[in-house]
Amino acid sequence: MKKWTSILLIFALVFSNILAATPLSVSAAEQSNSITVAEALATPQGTDVTMTGYIVAGFNGQYAVEVADSTDATETIVVKLESEQRSEFSPVNNPSALHQQIVVTGTRDVYSNRESIEYVSSISFVSEPNPDDPNDGDTLTIAQARNVAAGETVTVEGMVTANGTKTFIQDDTAGINLYSPADSTPFSVGDFVKVTGEREDYNGLQEISNYTVEVLSSNQSVTPQTVTIDQVNEKVEGELIRLENVTIGPINTNGNTFIEDDNGNSIAIYQIPALEHISAGNIVNVTAIGTEFKGTYQLHVEQADDVEFVSEGSDDNGDPNTYEATVTSVVDGDTIHFEPAIFGSDTVRYVNIDTPETYHLNSYDSSLINTDPDHAQKYHGEQAKEHLKSLLQPGDEITLKVGEEITDAYGRVLAQVIRKSDGLNTNLEMVKQGFASTYFIWPVGDMETYNKFQSAVKEAKDNKRGIWSDTNTDVLELPFVFRARDEGDGLSRYVGNSDTKLYYEPANWAEVPVEKRIFFSEEEAIANGYTPAFERDSKIADARYAPVGSSVSISGVVTHISGDNYYIQDDTAGIVVRSSNLDAKVGDKILANGVTSEYYGMLQVVTEDVKVTEAGVGGPSPSYIKATDLGESTEGTLVAIENVSVNSVDSNHNYTATDGNGNTFVIDSDQDLVQTGKTYDTIIGVVDYNFNTFKLVPRSSEDVIEDIPVSTIEEARTAELDTKVQIEGIVTAISGQNYYVQDETAGIVVRVEEPGFTAQVGDKIRAKARTEEYFGLLEIIPTLHNVSIIEAGVGVPEPKLITSADMNEALEGQLVVIKNVTVDSADEHGNYQATDSDGSLVIDNDERFIQTGTTYEQIIGVLDYNYDEYKIMPRSMEDVTVKQAEPELSSIADARNRDQGTRVKVEGILTAKFDDMTYIQDDTAGIALYGTEVDAHVGDKVKVVGTTKEYYGLSELVDYEVKVIESEVGIPTAKNITSADVGESLEGQLVTLSMVTIDGNAEHGEYFASDKTGEFIVDNNSFVEVGKTYESITGILTYDFGSYKLVPRTGEDVVLYTPSPEEVLIDTLLAGDSTKSKEVASGFIRLVENGTLANKEVANLIEQTLYENSYQDFFTTIKIKRIALQIRILLEIVERDFHFSTIEKIVNYQAEKRFTRIIERDIYDILVSGNLKKAK
């Protein structure tokens, strides 16, 4: 029986699915009983509706669609599709569904903060999309093609104006985007092409997808038409345009960069290329393609050169607390979404106001809104939301005015929202019309704003508008009261009256009129001159803020004892009680009655009227603060400061230290509990004041927590889970709250859940937390105190070249690159199945800029782990490079002369491999390959396909592929050159310099060197020594830091110079040691007699000098140096080439003025001039 029941159930389910998935024709009766989109939006949530409308866009990928009353309407409702409906009705899966009319039945609800219809029981096209292709085979103008219905096949001809991250073509009539080629036919900017594909719309941008290309001609050009920002619209969408003399805003290569003209018009450039020498505020000219995204026109800039610097721009940057933005959606009555994001958020929580909540119910029961606080709250919340929608539409330009507190605990920007079109303050307007209450939490900001808002709420209340109605439709509970009840936390803030300066307990908030209401902590209320409007015991804060000399009665827990000084605190503040009679311990509660006084600025109560009222209640936990919080408000309290570096100490045991934010403070430790030069994880202590300085006083060694040393990320990864670690690394990717961080050893995810962390990709950060796993992904989740930017903009490390076989835990969290990837398929979750040379892999791409059926030259991304498998996660479209056709073979000399960024193919011999640089050369030139991924050996002949680049003057190839053509063909003979030959023509080649003297140390392990023609630099600290001369040095001639340098490859490239016997003797004479003169003279005589000095002129000179002068004369007179020099000159002239070092020594001896003539002046001049023939 059970078996038959199961079969019947399966049949029923299958049959119902078939019915739901099959688009049925819609009868006239069905259409007549349906409502419009506008009517559906006005229908309460929870109501079943049947609605007719047009699909105008996909929403959340394939999972939902946006529906409007017409194809060009801006007011939309989201229809969440059931799984069996997505293939037919989602434009992602069925592009022909876009702009089709549908009838849908479901339940009104909210989906992803958007008004929606969910639980769809039926959905049908009013008329079936026409799959026929009436235009097939006919070539249309692009303007005509733009008017063809989506889904139809079109053929157009046009000029390629962009072919990077996006592809556009245009003709004389219009332009259009090309998306997802059907084949791999190569084409370039400037090609005139014929394109056939399907006409599609993507978020308002018209495009041709699944297209084929035929290149008709090349090297054409299009002159961009000059337009103003307000002229960027549908007419120029897809066309090359130019905007002149516009001001560029903050540059965001991952999001929107805005430009603005003198009239206040602005437009976004999405994912602008990295710009050099251009900063926010500069005046620029921009060449771009006009694009569109969800009804908002944008610009696509193809390359950095398309943004031209004009001038620095005005020094007037406006109000630094205001930011320009565009509304994307209204969430509720006091929350909107906007773009571009600021402070890491795209959400504004309206400041100074509070509207009724909507989150707690899907819909309200209109019969209960007068009696049930939950339904009343929901009703008024929806009213507020609708009113704010009437004030702000998606696409509206706004100005965000932030205050002292920029974001709330959820990371939302706290701001006033000003409508740019007319300057309307929408925060104030919501209050004025009765859709919101004012809500001021101390600090309230400037009093002018405070008074303006409080006047508006009084006006609304006096006129009984909205939530202030005295009919049965008032709000019943103000929003903050509702939240306290709904969340179960109760009311915690005291309420002050800004007129009377009285403050009330949280539960008695209604004692203060709304137009006078400010919320405080009790300490803040007391500190700002407010007094309690209720009976209570004295608080320490009362004593602290009373005039010095006041009689006070205070009670608190002892946190520290120093002699007769007892540091006590309660829930409002801390203070010192000084007594010689008190016998209390840390953790006891005491009561003290006395008079306040100051001891060198430290507030205290000196009294003997003091007693322990409760022993051993336990001390309060320290408050974690920043060094900048050491002050009057924390004096006498127990606090903790993290990431403390102790820098110096004076004779009074005052230690100067800095916290993790670089703020300086003083630690007062008579016990010397800390040491200079050390860093501590946390230091706990009481806040003291002496010698005009607030100081942290640790009580014992237990208050000084040794710093956790910075470990490598690899060490953190291999530690036991739940181990507290501290790591440093560079942010390579950001996904929501996850920061992918890596150092030289490994990568890890740093998840920052608290708002306020503003690190960007390329910043170096430090983070400290305990290791944990999230479904197998290792991460640390530091508090905001324990994560910081230690150096901004250091740059992203080069991605590691891997294959699919390398995707494992060792590379988790690191930036990697995989070459030659073919994408095969994708699932509904944005997981793309792909293959490379070593197997299969998964690409995680929720943004869906990866295309199936495409081969990519490379894909860069971080290696992530989710759903039990490793995946590469590209960060943006810039991380993916579609594989291009291989360029024609060129000589290395020709490749060196190509523009930067040109793809080239060369062949050559591999002559050297260093840590991160490889050199190849052919018969024409040499060039560097930057990186470590060259799988070839010195002496191999290789083919290289790569991209030209100039790196600080060095010509190199990057993003290359290397293939060995022939192994071990041998290294070409090094070219013999002198330092005078050093220059770009020899850069990257193997060369040899002879008779090289190492003159001294340069920077970075380099050496100053010289040969007979000049000076140069040798770059290798392991093969040469200062002061030595080398017969020859062979190496690669490279260029960096503004100089050409010779880089020996091994010790065999360096040949030490061995001097001749006569040179040894001459150098001994020149040293001036008369005790060795006889020995040297005898040595010369032997050289003459045995014929070593074959030249007769030299031999005769030596004989004449040595025999005609008495030994006594010779040994004791200055002639010895003259003789040595004469011998050296003759040796240089006759036996070897003239050497400049001879002249240097002659000049040096002349400078000593020991004798007036060494040789005749005319001979000296001849030698200097280098006329060797005349010198002889």
From TrEMBL:
Protein keywords: Signal
SUPFAM superfamilies noted in UniProt: Staphylococcal nuclease
One Pfam entry name: DUF6359
Domain of life: Bacteria
Record bears the keyword Lipid biosynthesis: no
Region forming the signal peptide: 1-20
Keyword Repeat included in the entry's annotation: no
TNase-like domain segment(s): 321-470
Protein name: TNase-like domain-containing protein
UniProt source species: Radiobacillus deserti
Lineage: Bacteria, Bacillati, Bacillota, Bacilli, Bacillales
